[in-house]
Amino acid sequence: MGGAQGRPSKAEGDAGPSTTANGLPIREIPGGYGIPVLGAVGDRLAYFWTEGIPNFYENRRKKFNSTVYRMNMIPGPPGFPKNPVVMLLDQKSHKVLLDNDKVEKRDCITGTFVPDLQYFGGYRPTVYLDTSEEKHTLLKGFLFEVLKASRPRIFPEFRKSVSEVFDSWEAGLKKEGKIKFKDELAIATLRFNIKAVLNVDPADPTVEANLGKGVKSTVMTWLAPMFMPIAPAPIPRLLKPVLAPVAELVMHTFPVPFILVKPKYEQVVKFFRANSKEQLDLAETQFGLNRDEALQNLMFATCFNSWGGIQILFPNIIKRLASTSPDFQRELSEEVRKAAGESGGSITPASLSSMPLLQSAVYEVLRMDPPVPSQFGRAREDLIVESHDAAFQVKKGEMLACYLPVIGRDPKVFTSDPQDYNPKRFVGEEGQKLVQYVLWSNGPQTGSPTTTNKQCAGKDFLTTVAQLLVAEVYSRYERVQVNGDNLVALSPPSNA
Ligand code: HEM
């Protein structure tokens, strides 16, 4: 795909440019922001309630006949700063958001809304820093070193964590015939994440300042309220007419005061401070970072960036795979058991790279269900942004945004059944050419995070653990069946 954002050329006798160098017509950006405050409130109600996601985006794409348009991003006024964006919904226009020369990424993870910095100890975590800030280079470099040190622990610790989850699922299925599978997976992956980074289990009662069995609720109490203004309310459809106004007022209208979560936040700080001496020494000596700032970043990267994404992604991986045919699941299980057999019975980094079916099935979940669906960036200069069929003038300072689940289904790139989960999509030579369009990490799946870009620091860590999850499931089972949020059957391999 040609992604060049071409320079405009002037049509003869015309006051302004009418086409780009690539011959695309320059169009006025459709859509708008409406009356101050009321327009933003209207878009927010449509986003969360009357239209919902993804219909909100699709309805406007159809209405404006354009994959680029103006809209108010949530949460917005009256309780938050106005958040007007130019939305980009195709693979070509989205490229501008990955170009750090063209967009600034300072304080715009969710547009103009930034949670109270007290949630982060008064510091701006790496994800809020622009590539032009020296601190970005230092903090991201520090996190790379922490992740490098975690490598020897990833495979054994992950296996241990999920084996316990599988034992418990099996016991639950025997007893109840079905089991809500998300909770246990979430607790196990949180403990795994922290163990991988710090080399201590936060729930172990012998560990200093441990968070005990309530580790998940403590961490969630700290994390959930800061991003509540942009989260959909988990209300059953039937109760929406009654509860929606209350949820809207409580969740999306004003920020949640930090004071409410301060005690839990302080418990997490105490635990990390007591158990991260090695990492903080590294931050101080190798990167010249202040220990407290490094600590806050370590906490946020481990609990929010990493586990926050994992706890959304992993249930989707299980659900998507359970939705595939018994034949596909058997084929996957055979691939996994063959690769594990060739490496002495357990999964190793080498065995993961010898499983094309497994890799493809995971990329396909990341294409369809990217856990962080929106990214933002502010135009550093006046820009021409090209979609597949038109070009648009964006002014310096305007906020650009995207919604990846729509971009991941761009029919101009994923030409065959883009709306369907096809676990074999990325297999073979042609399939491999599509891997670059898997963009969950704020960069192509074929790209690498560096200290000079804004691609997810944990891209390779996450790709590995997502593949490991599938490998561990399908080395033990040949078929997984899910109904809604319930796991209803786990079938061991018939020829094991
Ligand atoms: C499913 C899991 C994950 C998802 C969906 C995810 C997604 C993302 C996305 C979309 C961004 C870019 C945000 C933006 O600039 O708009 C990002 C950045 C980042 N992620 Fe991840 N991430 C995940 C796991 C991890 C892990 C395991 C780590 C480990 C430390 C991590 C650390 C970071 C950091 C530090 C940044 C900021 C990068 C920078 O400022 O250059 N993430 N992540």
TrEMBL record:
Give the matching InterPro entries.
Cyt_P450 (IPR001128), Cyt_P450_E_grp-IV (IPR002403), Cyt_P450_sf (IPR036396)
Signal peptide (from-to): none
The record's region (Disordered) falls at 1-25
Instruction: Say yes or no: keyword Metal-binding present.
Output: yes
UniProt keywords (A-Z) are: Fatty acid biosynthesis, Fatty acid metabolism, Heme, Iron, Lipid biosynthesis, Lipid metabolism, Lyase, Metal-binding, Oxylipin biosynthesis
Residues binding heme are C456
Q: Molecular function terms in GO for this entry? A: lyase activity; metal ion binding
- Could you say which cofactors this protein requires? heme
Annotated GO biological process? fatty acid biosynthetic process; oxylipin biosynthetic process
Q: Which domain of life is it from?
A: Eukaryota
- Which SUPFAM superfamilies does this chain map to? Cytochrome P450
The UniProt entry's sequence similarity note says: Belongs to the cytochrome P450 family.
Q: What is this protein called?
A: Allene oxide synthase
Q: Which organism is it from?
A: Riccia fluitans
